[in-house]
Amino acid sequence: MAKPVIDAEKCKGCGLCIKFCHKGLLKKSGKLNALGAVYVEFDKDTNICGGCCFCALVCPECCIEVQK
Fold first, then answer.
1. Looking at the 3D structure of the chain, how many domains does it have?
2. Rg for the chain (alpha carbons), in Å?
3. Full domain range(s) for residue 44
4. pTM surpassing 0.90?
5. CATH, residue 55
6. CA 12 to CA 8: how far, in whole Å?
7. Residue stretches of the chain with pLDDT short of 70
8. Dihedral (Cα; 22, 57, 43, 14), 10-degree rounding
9. What per-residue string of b and e applies to 17-39 under the rule 16 or more CB within 10 Å gives b?
10. Are the CB atoms for 52 and 68 separated by under 8 Å?
11. pLDDT, tens digit, for every residue of 6-20?
């Protein structure tokens, strides 16, 4: 199983990763980081990440790493 790890302090909350995750595993956290942005987090209730890395590839801030 793969898991996206998101650096919440670098995330600007653009939502591209959410849009490109074909399994719908990412969501807005509802919490603010130091930048004042609502950052994205991995939905911990879902364990079906296939490790496609689309989320990491589309992130303009390079704050997502997919661990396998």
1. 1
2. 11
3. 3-67
4. no
5. 3.30.70.20
6. 8
7. 45-46
8. -100
9. bbeebeeebbbebeeebeeebbb
10. no
11. 999 999 999 999 999
